[in-house]
Amino acid sequence: MLSVRKNEYPSKQTVNLVFRERSINSPSRAIPAFLLFLVFLALFVRFGVQGQLQKMTSAQASLEKVQADLSGLVEYNRDYETVREQYSQYFNDYLNEDEAVLRDRLDVLTLLEECVMNQADLSSISVQGNICRISITDVPLNTISGIVADLERNPQVQYISVATAATENNEEGQDRQNVTANVTITLTGGQDR
Prior knowledge:
- The chain is α+β, with helices and mostly antiparallel strands.
- Helix content is 46%, strand content 20%.
- A 4-stranded antiparallel β-sheet has the order 1-2-4-3, with helices on one face.
- Strand 1 and strand 2 (131-140) form a beta hairpin.
């Protein structure tokens, strides 16, 4: 016959929970990991912190040295402006390239005084760059020729042109004709001083 079986539950009363845990906390693994961490920490401190601090310290020392040199030079050049003013009275090194090629205006006035003003009166003077334009009125034509000849002999003058001339009748007759002349004088550069 068939026998009916009763539901039976397991009869084991104890559980075997023993197994080997693999943990980082075990001394055989923790000590090498800690030593490896210390090696990385020492390398980081040596190259990442101390190296950067040494670079910063040496850069700061260099900066302080340069600043000390600069302050010494500033103190040494304290009176530069007064020396430059005195120096520039005698030399033209303070001029830029455009100004250096121009004839000195005092030389131009001296030239006009020596070659023109002792023979005729000037009604106007205009100096732009190295070109001087003068207007001479009420002088004989041969005086204008003499003035031009005197100017052409001067080494400061490159060339001369008489731009316009107008004749006026003179009360004394036709022997002497007075003219008004506009003279353009092109001067040489200012470098030959």
